[in-house]
Amino acid sequence: MTVQASPIRNVLFIMCDQLRWDAISCSGHSVIETPNIDRLAGRGVRFDRAYAQGAVCGSSRMSFYTGRYVQSHGARWNRVPLSIGQRTLGDHLRPYGLRTVLVGKTHHAPDRDSLAHLGLDPDAPENVYLMQCGFEGTERDDGLHPDQRNPFDLPYNRFLRANGFDVPNPWHTAANSVTDEAGNVVSGWLLRSSAYPAIVPNELSETAYMVDRAISFMSESGDDPWCMHLSFIKPHWPYVVSEPYHQLVHPNDLPATVRHDEERANEHPVLNAFQRSRIGSCFSRDEVRQTVYPAYLGLVKQIDDHLGRLFAALDAQGKTDETMIVFTADHGDYMGDHWMGEKDWFHDQSVKIPFIMVDPRPEADATRGSVSDQLVEAIDLAPTLVEAIGGDPSDLAHATWLEGRSLIPTLHESAETQLAASDEANFAETDFGYLEMSNHLPAGTTPEQMRATMVRTDRYKYILSEVGPNLLYDLHDDPDEFHDRAADPSLATVQAELHERLFAWYRQRDNTSTTVEPMRAASATPGDTANDGIVIGFWDEEELAAGLDGKLF
Amino acid sequence: MTVQASPIRNVLFIMCDQLRWDAISCSGHSVIETPNIDRLAGRGVRFDRAYAQGAVCGSSRMSFYTGRYVQSHGARWNRVPLSIGQRTLGDHLRPYGLRTVLVGKTHHAPDRDSLAHLGLDPDAPENVYLMQCGFEGTERDDGLHPDQRNPFDLPYNRFLRANGFDVPNPWHTAANSVTDEAGNVVSGWLLRSSAYPAIVPNELSETAYMVDRAISFMSESGDDPWCMHLSFIKPHWPYVVSEPYHQLVHPNDLPATVRHDEERANEHPVLNAFQRSRIGSCFSRDEVRQTVYPAYLGLVKQIDDHLGRLFAALDAQGKTDETMIVFTADHGDYMGDHWMGEKDWFHDQSVKIPFIMVDPRPEADATRGSVSDQLVEAIDLAPTLVEAIGGDPSDLAHATWLEGRSLIPTLHESAETQLAASDEANFAETDFGYLEMSNHLPAGTTPEQMRATMVRTDRYKYILSEVGPNLLYDLHDDPDEFHDRAADPSLATVQAELHERLFAWYRQRDNTSTTVEPMRAASATPGDTANDGIVIGFWDEEELAAGLDGKLF
User: Fold this and answer.
1) How large is the ipTM?
2) What are the residue ranges of helices labelled H in B395-453?
3) Closest-approach residue (CA) in chain A for B541
4) Which residues contact A448 (CB under 8 A, 6 or more apart)?
């Protein structure tokens, strides 16, 4: 850092779940209007080539929260505990005096096995950060509450029961169910339900509730600085939304499905499995996409409207000018594109994310409203926030853990200077061995083989798949990623280079961050160990004396 | 495991520091006689192709103690703390009722930063295993105690002071110093001292003292089962040894130095740096080797003699038939071979280790005295011990952590059936950025580049070096590793295969072991998540009902 801007006071870190990078109007969506999110983009920088590190909630979020690649933090899928040996965003930010507060979802699984191993009480107040992914447990709600999980005590369920929906699990039977044309209550898990409005009205929706909670927190926090992680469950499924959002978009107005017959003709065993699996085959049906996508866009619009309330409250509290705002998502949603549904693979619909950052300080004035095509990643968030609140990401307390880089330089300069350098690359991982796809994969495929890693450079996307051949897309000639070029001899050199680049990336991953850099540097300084009495490689006193002068190294 | 042998009661895990695989007579050394170690080999199996995972004490030992590759445990060099998120041999063995006891060296650095982060008191009795690498702190001594480290309270120093060497640091001035021909006391760190006897007599040497402590522990332990890690500091430098061991071997009788002019002609920047650095250039001098190597062999002979006492005590206590014995080392010593000194690189002199296992049970009778050329590794020890004491290494409590495989099948069958399969391989890593070699490496080389990884197969040894080209040896045609064949076009395919193999190995390394396999398996079972209420990919009730029958996955 050359010039030190005055530190940011608060951080509002907004995450949507399963929000495609292109499902907001500032990214060019052809139908939906999201004026509040667009206004954020107008006040800050919108990163147009931002990627998640994992293509599923848990692994992606743990990369956001640790600032580390999945291979480094190890929580490779949903519900895989984050090792007690890791550190979170809260650990990096709290030393600067901010409260770190969660409102909504993290998908964090604490490392209960290690807590027990170390004799640490999971219920002790001092261990809350280990249990809540580095946040105070203000309002944790991971957003999926079927009856089987016995969610009677869920705060949102208590709220709904107090507001007229007095059933054991109104999350399911009211907020995520609908009444169909025959008057039957139908679960919102079923995709045909997306055509109907949710039983709860908009003001009692989970999205409204979370924004209410966020506004309450901001107002109650007084002058305490904070980093609030407002983490919406939506537009993640169940894809049902309250009136009037369920019918804002007419199916005929939807953008064309992004898919190509060549994709089905490709005999890649993993692509085939994704396409043929329950979810892929279901979302490849036109009725599904035409029913679900409008509700999905309605959920996004609903979020945008409530964000308008949130930003107005921030204004009213006089905190807009002292609060950095980040708007992003953990991953996208195929929504039938590429003959696939959900996420878990590496097309842009799945792994590319919306990423908007608003730095309210004067140093960022020059970049407001700009779009950066720098290749950025989820892991860049943590170092950016560290720098924003006055820390130095290169301090060892951060640098030994954080694998991303601060984006403050981009926010504080003209975005035109930040075009992607040819040596930039993004990396993402997936572990589809957790998915119910085994019937569609080659017999005998092991869980360890159901993995893949992506590297995306300025022009290419290369996917190393442990099952079947690797995949290569030329994003310049084929931005829709229809044509796998891995077998194209004219790209053999490109592919070999990307393969080596991925190998080098793996070799650079540390599994732990206990390496003590000052110790290493001292250890490697000629003469240092001998001065410390650890003498090896000297014949006699004369040679040692010369050595201690640094002459013999 | 098919047949279940009765569990072993005790484990005696003996490690020497810096003992070359070939510096014992059962491995064919041309001069030294080690009858007690040879007798162990006669009672058990000697593994003739065993490798350490790291070529330096700390990283190698952490692989022994965690059963994990260096890339997985993360303690990449001496004094790099072992992350609190890791588990040790003690964690794996103690649940079976064994005390795990340390007598000697571990080179373990506790993760004090994480202890503080978690609010754990390093001095609390319940945290001793975190501080002592999984062992009770019976007698910890990492063996290097220059005055600069203020080792006044070292138990061995107290012992020496009580036995006539009443100076502040008798470890240095008596046990590791000599009196030269002019009557001057000279530090044992200086290599010319190796020609003279240590000032302390044999019975007060560090080796004798550790064996005394081990015998005392065994006798005091009564009927409690134990795993004792007796970990000698020697024959690690300072290379001085008490009378008469200092002159057992005449310099003229030493085996020929294993080196070739072609090795100096090779312009590989890392090989050059090792050769030209202080240690390499020093040990390349004939006077150094001829002075130091005899003392080194004397230290080995001294260990062998004291092991005779130890084994006699084990016999006298009636525990020989209920005790598994392992004899090994953390790495070797170049001793001038390949124009190098110390260790840290991948020639067999450095990274190959002695590895003898004695299983006293009748099931092992058929293999006694045999030599196995199976490719085995340090990480195989932990699962072997788990199985020996009655555990099942495939139990998740072990299997989620341990990356090696149990060698009990080899010990319980005819060794002839255990020849190395063509798909076996050993892996080792080095991190020479901690060494004082920067003056000899290309300008601008970063610490991250000062790394290399080795894969050794039945026939080849391939070294991926982050600096300079990779290296390839054909061990069949060139067992001495004189001729780097990396540029040989006839081996291009072999090299490419080894390169890919190493890449696959990196991809298989997990940084943490929090993955919950039963959760993954359930998650991947078609229909399981839908049955758990997490429903996605179904249009209506009818489709869901069919799905819950497992028909649609």
Assistant:
1) 0.94
2) 396-399, 408-411
3) A190
4) A433, A466, B508
Q: Which tokens go with A107?
A: 């998908």
Whether residue A419 has pLDDT greater than 50:
no
CATH topology of domain B10-408: Alkaline Phosphatase, subunit A (3.40.720)
> Chain A closest CA to B410's CA: distance in Å?
26
Residue B497 has pLDDT above 80, yes or no: yes
- Contact at CB, B190 and A538, closer than 8 angstroms: yes
Q: Place A167 in a pLDDT band, splitting at 50, 70 and 90.
A: very high
Residue B105 above 50 pLDDT? yes
| DSSP per-residue string spanning B244-278 | TGGGSS-GGGSPPP---HHHHH---HHHHHHHHSH
Chain A positions touching B513 (Cβ under 8 A) are: 74, 83
CA distance A336 to chain B (A): 11
Lowest mean pLDDT: which of A430-434, A517-521, B308-312, B482-486?
Answer: A517-521
Average pLDDT in the B200-219 region?
A: 97
pLDDT: which is higher, A332 or A149: A332
Q: Please count the other Cβ atoms lying within 10 Å of the Cβ belonging to residue B343.
A: 26
pLDDT at A374: 93
Shortest Cα–Cα distance, A168 to chain B (Å):
15
| Contacts A187 to B, Cβ<8 Å | 535
B434/A544 touch (CB, cutoff 8 Å), yes or no: no
Q: Which amino acid is at A45?
A: V
Q: What is the pLDDT of residues A70-90, one digit of tens each?
A: 999 999 999 899 999 999 999
DSSP codes joined into one string, A89-149: HHHHHGGGT-EEEEEE-------HHHHHHTT--TTSGGGHHHHTTTSEEEEE--S---GGG
pTM metric for this prediction: 0.95
Give one DSSP letter per residue of B453-495, joined into a string.
EEEEESSEEEEEESSS--EEEETTT-TT-----TT-GGGHHHH
Do residues B298 and B246 make contact, with C-beta atoms less than 8 angstroms apart? yes
- Match 């650079």 to its residue by tokens: A508
- The three-class DSSP label of residue A513 is coil
Residue B468: both structure tokens together: 């300079």
Residues of chain A neighbouring B553 (CB-CB closer than 8 A): 277-278, 436, 439
List C-alpha distances in Å: B310 to A201, B19, B32: 80, 19, 20
Helix A155-162 and helix A206-220: axis angle, to 10°? 100
Answer yes or no: is pLDDT of B1 > 50: no
Chain B residues inside the 8 Å CB shell of A82: 514
Cβ separation of A130 and B149 shorter than 8 Å? no
Cβ burial of B476 (10 Å; 0-12, 13-18, 19+) is exposed
Whole-angstrom distance, CA of residue A292 vs CA of residue A290 = 6
Please name the residue of chain B whose CA is at the shortest distance from the CA of residue A527: B436
Q: Do A263 and A270 contact (CB within 8 A), yes or no?
A: no
pLDDT digits over A474-528, tens only? 999 999 999 999 999 999 999 999 999 999 999 999 776 766 677 788 878 888 8
Task: Determine the residue of chain B that is closest to A434 in CA distance.
Answer: B524
Q: Position of tokens 């953008």?
A: A255
CB B457 within 8 A of CB B285: no
Q: Which residues contact A227 (CB under 8 A, 6 or more apart)?
A: A10, A11, A13, A89, A90, A93, A98, A99, A100, A101, A385, A389
Strand, helix or coil at B376?
A: strand
Instruction: Return the sign of the alpha-carbon dihedral for residues A232, A234, A240, A242.
Output: positive
- A282/B119 touch (CB, cutoff 8 Å), yes or no: no
**Does the distance separating the beta carbons of B507 and A506 come in below 8 Å?**
yes
What integer pLDDT is reported at residue A56 of this predicted model? 95
Instruction: Give the torsion sign (CA, A429, A435, A438, A441).
Output: negative
Q: What is the mean pLDDT of chain B?
A: 94
> Which regions of chain B carry the CATH code 3.40.720.10?
10-408
Query: Inter-chain contact B435–A523, Cβ cutoff 8 Å?
Result: yes
Q: What local confidence, expressed as pLDDT, does residue A415 receive?
A: 46
